[in-house]
Write a structure and sequence with these properties.
By secondary structure, the chain is α+β, with helices and mostly antiparallel strands. The chain has 10 helices and 4 strands; from the N terminus they run H-H-H-H-H-H-H-H-E-H-E-E-H-E. Helix 2 packs antiparallel against helix 3 and helix 6 crosses helix 7.
């Protein structure tokens, strides 16, 4: 368990470093904006520096914006997820302060694409290991559970706000390149993690009772147990079917690996749910 937590912290550190690298080496020098709270922090920092005597760094604004969201996530999403997510935000803020803003290329398209891709790698590996980069992810999860609508809807709305604001304040060309960067980010995150808000896990196991107890102790999700039999061995088994959000996938994989590493698990996309799906 300690080894797993240490590895998770290392992944969060790497993800935070990649996020800061993408912003300070590619997006900020080209005046291209990131998604989520990072993009809002970029906009606020630029507006404050140009319209007021104040100069506030992106890293500081990112940290401040995420404090109330972390409190919300603590009560509404989960303590472990929120702790690792806020750690990711704090590390990103620190790296944004430590890494100097450096222009790698003068080509705005190259900056948009490479910035978006590097940012997505950082976000993708962080999500894959059961954390997030904070801010928008946590807000989208809470709203999704309240309304039972796709997380992507809320992410799109906030990112659209960033693009429109950037267009009005700094020209529509920058806004269009921001869309290019967001598209690259979205595609790479989908490739590394999963694009689906909810997934269904079908687990074939000989240790159904132990696995059921372990899942219920860590995930607040219903499980359907279906009797099964191996076609080749004719040995009796059980199939556990459970629908989870993509943010719970890492925890489920870890539970299965700890309880029954020989279990066969099939993860499939879930495009819709009818009936009760616990939102809290």
């Amino acid at each position: 368990m300690i080894w797993l937590q240490s590895k998770k912290i290392v992944i969060v550190i790497i993800g935070a470093f990649l996020n800061a690298l993408a912003i300070n080496f590619f997006l900020v020098p080209a005046n291209v904006y990131s998604s989520g709270f990072t993009g809002i922090a970029q906009l606020l920092s630029k507006v404050l520096s140009e319209q007021t005597p104040l100069t506030v760094s992106i890293g500081f604004l990112l940290l401040v914006l995420n404090i109330p969201v972390a409190i919300l996530g603590w009560f509404k999403v989960g303590k472990s997820f929120t702790v690792y997510s806020f750690l990711s935000v704090a590390l990103s803020s620190m790296f944004l302060e430590l890494i100097p803003i450096t222009q790698v290329s003068e080509d705005i398209l190259l900056n948009s694409v490479f910035g978006g891709v590097i940012l997505a790698v950082g976000v993708g590996i962080t999500l894959k290991w059961g954390a997030s980069t904070g801010g928008l992810d946590i807000i989208a999860m809470v709203l999704s559970r309240m309304k039972d609508k796709p997380i992507g809807t809320y992410i799109f709305i906030l990112n659209a706000f960033i693009i429109i604001t950037a267009g009005f304040l700094f020209g529509w060309e920058k806004a269009l390149y921001t869309i290019v960067s967001l598209y690259a980010t979205t595609r790479v995150i989908d490739a590394i993690h999963t694009r689906h808000a909810k997934v269904t896990a079908m687990i074939i196991t000989k240790k159904a009772d132990e696995l059921k107890a372990a899942i219920h102790s860590q995930l607040v999700r219903g499980i359907t147990m279906i009797p099964a039999k191996g076609a080749f061995s004719n040995e009796p088994r059980d199939m556990l079917m459970i629908v989870i959000t993509r943010y719970e996938l890492f925890d489920l994989e870890r539970i299965i690996r700890d309880v029954d590493p020989n279990a066969f698990t099939n993860i499939i996309q879930t495009t819709g749910i009818y009936g009760f799906f616990r939102r809290e």
